[in-house]
Structure to design on (127 residues):
């Protein structure tokens, strides 16, 4: 499982959504990005393909299509995990509140809290 440097700012809809669920919940903006990636790749392939311009254009379009697919997957996944605004997904699937940061000021040793005073003294004597 991947780790995140920051906690999500929006409620988490699904921590590990399957691939089909991510791609079936694309927004209009995601489809627009995917189209732009594909359409920019084709003329770029044509312009850089000296000697085989038509094949380079198709290959550039394929690269743009693939890059667009990865980009919209990343955006949709970020909405499911709460790193982007996900109000429409919350209405559709429900949500869980975003995780709270750990409070590192509290003692992390619950065993000491359970021991009686006599047991604590005997532990200190053995040290």
């Amino acid at each position: 499982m991947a780790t995140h440097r920051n906690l999500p700012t929006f409620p988490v809809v699904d921590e590990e959504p399957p691939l089909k669920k991510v791609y079936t919940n694309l927004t209009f903006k995601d489809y627009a990005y995917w189209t732009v990636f594909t359409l920019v790749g084709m003329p770029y392939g044509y312009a850089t393909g000296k000697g085989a311009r038509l094949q380079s254009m198709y290959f550039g379009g394929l690269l743009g299509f693939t890059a667009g697919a990865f980009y919209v997957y990343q955006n949709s996944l970020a909405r499911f995990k709460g790193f982007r605004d996900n109000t429409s997904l919350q209405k559709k699937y429900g949500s869980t509140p975003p995780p709270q940061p750990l409070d590192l000021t509290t003692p992390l040793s619950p065993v000491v809290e359970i021991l009686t005073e006599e047991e604590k003294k005997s532990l200190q004597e053995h040290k």
The chain is about 60% helix and 0% strand. The mean pLDDT is 84. Residues 53-81 form the longest helix (29 residues). The helical segments are 19-24, 28-48, 53-81, 87-93, 110-114, 117-126.
